[in-house]
Amino acid sequence: MTEHAVPASELYTHEFATDPYPAYARMRDTTPVCLVGSPRFDSYLITGMDDAKAALTDPRLSKDLYGPGEHYLRIFGPNSASLNKNMLNSDPPEHSRLRRLVSQAFAARRIEALRPRVVEIVDELVDAFFPHGRSELMSEFAIPLPMMVICELLGVPENDHKQLIGWTEVIRKSGASRRPEDDRAAVQQAQLRLHHYLADLVRDKRAHPGDDIISALVDACDRDGTLSEQELVATTFLLLFAGHQTTADFLGNAMVALLSNPDQLALLRANPELLSSAVEELLRFDGPLPVASPRIATEDVEYQGVRIPRGSIVGVVINAANHDPAHFADPDKLDLCRQGGSHVGFGYGVHYCLGVSLARMEAQIGIGALLRRLPGLRLAVAVDELHRLPPASPFRGLVELPVQFTTG
């Protein structure tokens, strides 16, 4: 551990997993560029909004984890290269080339054409648990909704959806058990199975193309070599995982925020036209990706008078920036009518979320349906009893979200 680094064990506690925002506020006020040490690697965390935007667009902070130093091994482990060598972990011009190949698939007009199908999926999911007057919203709604939608876009057979949910949930819940060595083994096995499955799916699409994203990527790969076979599989994984993971966690976080703020819940029920702006405020208030994917300092850089040495891992704490009082009045208050201030929940700069239109649509339709169709919706346990993802998880979300409602 680097000298003077704050041990992760002092920061990532059970209390932190429940409510990280007091810790973020202390970091932002006292050490806005904070060195945090862990057994695997040290990293510098940037917490203020202005510094966050600067870092997210700083060319000296590289997203290419696969160059000299093999940083991906420190961060993701030995099985990561086959799935993570994609546009998320690359810089221009490689990032620009890879992003351009899939950007049309997520164009706002094409996503809007999916709206009737998303409505249909949402209603089917709610119909399945509505008669019971209760639901575990993560497994019965928040997780399957975005997975079903992204799988249809990618061209994944419907019979395989549950299997993919199982593998991706192993990765998402990493660290939730009491035996870290078992978690690591399970994650590596899930990564391996995902890689084999996606490689087989790519081969099948090559032989039997359809009107889907994977078929289009295979065509680009075969037609002019703009995509290597490894990039093809890794890009498919990124679209699958990113296309459902963050939306699932956001839906869970958003419902907890609303059910914990009855005045705002009542406001949104009475004014469904606020859904669009409500989604933005809910994302600012408690986003699913607390820290942006890691960057590597390619040279010595300085933020807030703190020297970050070349080769250091840098994390931009999005959820801390989104609670910066210099940019948001009373930032720890959920205010669905908030005016002014723009969050960085979807990122910033060239790595701005590619699936933003899809995520917004799924959130608006999903949250709207739950509020409309589930009268008397309430948490089935106290907020502090909710089973959350482990404190050191790269995601902020829930393992389970039990709720109750009236049916008659």
UniProtKB/TrEMBL annotation:
UniProt-listed InterPro entries: Cyt_P450, Cyt_P450_B, Cyt_P450_CS, Cyt_P450_sf
UniProt xrefs under PROSITE patterns: CYTOCHROME_P450
Keyword Oxidoreductase set for record: yes
CDD domains, sorted: CYP107-like
Organism superkingdom: Bacteria
Gene Ontology MF annotations: heme binding; iron ion binding; monooxygenase activity; oxidoreductase activity, acting on paired donors, with incorporation or reduction of molecular oxygen
Pfam family, one: p450
Keywords: Heme, Iron, Metal-binding, Monooxygenase, Oxidoreductase
Family stated for the protein in its record: Belongs to the cytochrome P450 family.
The protein's name: Cytochrome P450
Species this protein is from: Kutzneria albida DSM 43870
